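Lab notebook: predicted structure, single chain.

Context: the supervisor wants predicted structures on file for every construct in the current expression panel, including those that have not yet been purified. This is the next one on the list. No modifications to the sequence; it matches the entry in the shared construct table.
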Amino acid sequence: MTTYAISAVTGRYGKVALQQLLSNIQRGVGIADSGKDSVIALARNVDKASASVPQGVEVRAADYSDPAQMVTALKGVDRLLFVSSQPGAAVPRLRQHQNVIDAAQKDGVSYIAYTSFAKADSAKSPLAEDHQGTEKALKASGIRHSFLRNAWYLENDMAVFKGAAAGRPLVYSAGEGRVSWASEKDYAQAGANVLVEAEPAEVYEFGGTPRTFAQMAQEVEKVTGKHVDVKAVDDAGYEQALKDSGMDEGLAQVLTSFQTMMRAGELDVDSPDLENALGHAPEPMSEALKNAIA
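Prediction complete. Output recorded below exactly as produced.
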């Protein structure tokens, strides 16, 4: 019997991963034991998690910034799907992640699947730095692990694509840079599938079919049947467009840096890993856009 845990279960990724894990256990997929294994849902907000997780799943408080709480949260856990935290908190993200790894060592967790960043070993984007540090810490911990290097969630850019669907110009400065967009649901289901693998790989480069923003505009046109006005600009023009829309300068600079990263090809992941982990092709882009726009 194996005890699994998934962190951040109140988030979109965590919710989907939890459902997929329970399905895997019920069906006896991988090393799952046809309903005999146990699952623990980890969350900072226990009340919120308890209201959303399926009946029979134990919920434990797990605030990454609280080392003692993390030790309690991971007691008895064999395999952990470790969902990375968001940057910008009072406790630095890398410190939070180290707390999780330290607790896992103390509690004897045998395996961790960690949601990392595309091509983290060579990525130059500042977004990759905490993930690179976490991968290094996991290697040093001696705990068996997999790096789920997720490229880019389609949901990250849905405001742009919804705007295009509503008739606004699709403005971008990523040039011909390709991005391996896929739905967060696909990434989460793949992560839960890796968690029950008997012999998981150390690295999974997850991503959908790489596309440019211009190609994504074509996908929006297919879904809506309407022409999308595409406007390619440089980074300065992109940042100014964001500020003209009412966005504050700090956020505008951050979003512009994403475009720079995309133009450099850091999110261009040409790999079969996502399809292989899912056991089927990722959701077609037209369907993913249709569902998200709706």
